[in-house]
């Protein structure tokens, strides 16, 4: 763990020296998620949607099947030693009636038995398990994975008190080396056009800018922020992308705006709907649509 004094430049024209507590630790994903009092890119993006999204979903949003697939793939690529300790495969060959689905009583009873035998582990169905093995085999033989991920520091958590607008933040980059970081994203489309759409939809530039800026506080001078996009649909293609500086700057502006909103919400200034101080509202109390929204 590290505690340090650092210089943080939130405005290019103004440098301020402030004393803040910085902590980095190799905790587990579960420990990272459960760490209260810190905002992450996920909660910042909620605040960017609306005050109510932030309040409603901050602790109550369930994970989807695609997110569960992504979590399992992350572990198999980055922490393969832990994968088989954490997951087990519900194999079709274990069915009593192999021509029927798992909801048929004989198969359902067998599934209950198998779950009991694998207590403490998460279940992956045969299709998911096979897809993860196919993707992993392809990715680990990609020379870019070998150069920039295989030998990197993986799954390290970073925590910063009073990072911006008085708000403590956290991030957990998938992998990083002295000047480059690579984040793994499962996506419907790993091709350039399809992934660009998902990049904007899920505001990945907020997450990457926050991670880059936080790591720099720890003396890790990241020069290139990259994403390994992996399709979660057959044929499970993958591709590496670099996030250019102008998108990181846009993400930086957005996470700073999100943290200002969170500070306002914490102060009790909560808006219903999507009306907020930064929006232009007409004489009838309606938001005026603008083309400047990112």
What is the topological layout?
Layout lengths: L3 E8 L2 E7 L1 E4 L3 H6 L6 H9 L1 H7 L7 H14 L1 H7 E4 L14 H13 L4 E4 H15 L2 H8 L2 E2 L2 E8 L2 E5 L3 E2 L3 E8 L4 H10 L2 H14 L6 E8 L6 E6 L1 H22 L28
Parallel strand pairs: 4-5, 10-11
Antiparallel strand pairs: 1-2, 3-7, 6-9, 7-8, 9-10, 11-12
Helix pairs in contact: 2-3, 2-11, 4-5, 4-7, 10-11
Written description of the protein model:
The chain is an alpha+beta fold. Helix content is 43%, strand content 22%. It has eleven helices and twelve strands. The longest helix has 22 residues, at 245-266. The protein is globular and about 65 Å long. The model is unreliable at 1-17 (pLDDT under 50).
Neighbour order of strands in the largest sheet: 6-9-10-11-12
Can you count the helices? 11
| Mean of pLDDT | 88
Radius of gyration: 22 Å
- Which class of secondary structure composition applies to the elements? alpha+beta
Shape: globular
What is the number of beta strands?
12
What portion of residues belong to β-strands? 15-25%
Low-confidence stretches: 1-17
Give the topology string: H per helix, E per strand. EEEHHHHHEHEHHEEEEEHHEEH
What is the helical fraction, as a range of percent? 40-55%
User: Tell me about the biggest sheet?
Assistant: 5 strands, mixed
Looking at how many chains there are and whether they match, the oligomeric state comes to single chain
The rounded distance between the terminal residues' Cα atoms is 37 Å
């Amino acid at each position: 763990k590290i505690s340090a004094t650092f210089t943080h430049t939130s405005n290019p024209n103004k440098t301020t020296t402030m004393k803040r507590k910085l902590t980095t630790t190799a905790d587990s994903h579960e420990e990272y998620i459960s760490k209260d009092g810190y905002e992450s890119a996920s909660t910042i993006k909620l605040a960017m949607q609306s005050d109510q999204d932030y309040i409603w979903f901050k602790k109550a949003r369930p994970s989807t099947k695609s997110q569960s697939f992504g979590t399992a793939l992350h572990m198999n690529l980055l922490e393969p030693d832990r994968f088989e300790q954490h997951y087990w495969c519900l194999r079709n060959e274990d069915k009593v009636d192999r021509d029927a689905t798992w909801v048929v009583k004989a198969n359902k009873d067998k599934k209950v038995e198998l779950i009991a035998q694998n207590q403490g582990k998460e279940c992956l169905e045969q299709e998911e398990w096979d897809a993860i093995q196919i993707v992993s085999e392809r990715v680990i033989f990609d020379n870019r994975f070998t150069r920039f991920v295989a030998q990197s520091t993986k799954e390290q958590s970073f925590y910063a008190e009073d990072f911006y607008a008085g708000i403590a933040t956290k991030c957990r980059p998938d992998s990083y080396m002295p000047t480059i970081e690579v984040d793994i994203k499962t996506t419907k489309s790993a091709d350039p056009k399809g992934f660009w759409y998902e990049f904007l939809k899920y505001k990945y530039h907020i997450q990457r800018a926050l991670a880059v800026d936080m790591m720099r506080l720890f003396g890790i001078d990241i020069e290139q922020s990259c994403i390994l996009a992996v399709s979660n649909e057959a044929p499970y293609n993958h591709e590496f992308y670099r996030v250019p500086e102008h998108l990181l700057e846009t993400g930086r502006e957005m996470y700073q705006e999100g943290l200002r909103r969170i500070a306002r919400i914490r102060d009790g200034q909560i808006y219903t709907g999507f009306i907020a101080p930064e929006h232009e509202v007409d004489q009838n109390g309606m938001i005026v649509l603008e083309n400047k929204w990112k």
